[in-house]
Structures are given as structure tokens and as C-alpha cells.
Amino acid sequence: MPLNDQQIQTLGRDALQRAAAGDFVSAEEMFARIVEARPNMGQALHLLGQIRLKLGRFAEAREPLERAAQFLPRDVAAQTNLAGCLIQLGRHETALVALARAARLKPDDAVISHNTGRTLETLGRTEDAERAYDLALSLDHRLLPALSARADLLAARGEWAGALSDLETALVSKPNDPHLRLRRGELMLRQGDWWRGLGDHEARLEIPGERYTPDLPRWQGEPLDGRLLLYPEQADIESDAALRDTLMLARGVDAVVQCAATLADWLDGPTVRRGEPLDGFVAAAPLRSLPLLLNWTREALPPPAKLRRTPEPSSRIGWFSVAEPPTGLAGLDLVRTPDEIATCRLVVGDDNWPAHAAASLGIPTVILLPRVADWLWGPSVGTSPWYASAELLRDDDREGLAARLAGC
Prior knowledge:
Elements: H1 5-20, H2 24-37, H3 42-54, H4 58-71, H5 76-88, H6 92-105, H7 110-122, H8 126-139, H9 144-156, H10 160-173, H11 178-190, H12 194-201, E1 227-231, H13 240-249, E2 256-258, E3 271-272, E4 281-286, H14 290-293, E5 316-320, E6 334-335, E7 344-350, H15 353-360, E8 365-369, E9 382-383, E10 390-394, H16 398-405
Helix pairs in contact: 1-2, 2-3, 3-4, 3-5, 4-5, 5-6, 6-7, 7-8, 8-9, 9-10, 10-11, 11-12, 13-15
């Protein structure tokens, strides 16, 4: 049945009240009736699209938002909401057009510039994205999302000082934000600054997520009258990250290590499986907190955990990298099974637990690291402070690897 102007006004007021009360489903039905009766009513189209965005119905929100942007060409919100919808749908190029219209209408809006930067970054146009972030921060120098995004871009290309400056500025506004503190800590740690970075790195424990924590008091480095449990904090204790953390970090303190079944026959020390009773333990510490709790420095690390295996080197070479070995090794007897590591005279691997096991045994080991490696390794390659027998190479340094393997 057709609606007259008074009925449309009444329906619109009711719809806004329903939306304000959180009843978006009823509000959407009402705005849809108004749009059906007045298909060229820009404000009703805009409100219908906004409600569908709140309901997560992005594909259905697009059509009314596109029409609203046409009928309300000078309404900034109509352009930005359309852009937000298009971004959700992966239509980033089209979203840029809407953001450009919004920027022309309101050139001093820092949020529009920031959203433009995020869209450009998604499209891989990092230089343009950085310029957009620069503009956003020139308009609002404490805009947290722009500071955070620009810090990521700067860190990705190794401009640590600039990235750190942006995070420091963000932390002025939110000094207790664990995400910002963690990122600041990781930036400093990746540069080898453990003294300043380790404290911030503990902020990770404040961030909700899939992290394992035993039902024990957290150890803070104090003397204990009872057993201490060390544990990998990964939810999946059999994951490669948990296995490598256990081998790399379970050192320097008298404690029981909670380890995966995979490592049960490797570690030469008291261990406990996850899920077993923790009777007699009085405190626990995640392995990644040990550098802070025990005041480690990269220049003076404790020796690796002792393993039960004994090296029995032969002519074999262990290969534990996802990359295929160079053609020059094709005719050699390559070991790819961790149980046979002790028979190797050389092991090549990614940053995974077999490479750590080989290095812990004192076997010459080449560990291939990505450009953005775990902060524990520090900023440089070469001789590793963690293992006397380990050498670090970038995983894309094929020439360096070939030179290291020459004559094998």
C-alpha cells in the first residue's frame, strides 16, 4: 500500500528509535518500506545501507549506499559509508573513488586520509599509503590508527627509529595499551635492545588469545620453596613454534619443563606432559619470559638444554628446510628424519625444532631465517649467540648457502 508523507515521517521516526534501541532487524524492515515507497529518497537509502552494515549484510548494503551517494553528493558520511561497505566486499579500487569524493568534500578530515591509506596499503601501493598516513597525521598528529599503520610500514622497510617514534607518540595517548606496548617491545628487541624491549614484550600476556596458561602463580624470579614449571605458551604444544621454543629457551634455571611428546626422548632433564597433574609445583613461567626474569643478555646466554642423544657423525647431511637443497647436494645421503640428526656432520634447516636440536647437540648447523625473523635471533646474521655450532643465514641468500655448502 502506498505511503503518504506523514506516514513516511512517522515510520522513519519509529525506525530511528528501533535502531537507537539496538533493534536493527525491525529498523531495517521499516527503512526498506520507506525506500520502496520513495526510491529516490537519499537519506532513507543511506540509513537503510547503514543498518545493513551494522547487521553485517554488506552485499545487500551496497546498492542503497551507492544510490545514497548519488542522491547525496555533498554528504561526507554517505561517501565514507559507501567506501566502508566496498572495502568489506573487497572492492578497494572503487572504495578509493568514494574516499576521494569524501576527501574533496572534507579535505581536513584525518580519518578519511587514514582510511585512504589503509585501502592503498591493501592494494600494495605502500608509497601512496604512507603519503596518506602522513597527511592524516599532519591533520591529527595523535591519530592512533594512522600512527600504528605508518609504524608498520616503516618497520617493514627497516626504518626502526621512525616506527618506534610513531609507537611512542601513540602510547602517549594510550600508555597502557598492551598491543602498542608489545609492538614497541618487539621493535626494540628486533634491534637487539633487550634492556628496553623485554619488559614491553610481557604485554603479550595481557592480550586475550589462544594461549596456554597453567593454573599456577606466575613466577616473577623470586626464590621458591617448591618446584618451578617452565612451559611453552602456545596452545598447541606439538606445534613447531612450541617445540623450537622449548629447545631454545629451556635453559639457565632449575625447573621442570612441560614439553610435547615429540621432545620427551630428547630432553635430558625433568619433564612433564601437558594435561598431567601439577602437584608439588608452586609457580610457573612461560619460556619466552625467561630472558626478562633471569636477566639474560645476548652476549651472555646460558648454555642450551642438555639432550639425551649423543652425536655420532657420519658423512650425512641433514636437510630440514621447506626449500629444496641445491643441485650440488643431489647425490649425497640427505637426512630428513629428526631421529637421525645425531648421525649428521652438518644440518641445514629453517627456524624449526630439528635445526635447534642439531645445534643443541653441537652439530654444525646452518639456520635459514626469514627477513623478519623471531626477535630472539637479533638484527644480524652470522654466528649465533644461542648455539656455538650454529650459523645464521637469510633464507633468500642462495649464494651464501651455496658457498657454505661448497665442497660438501
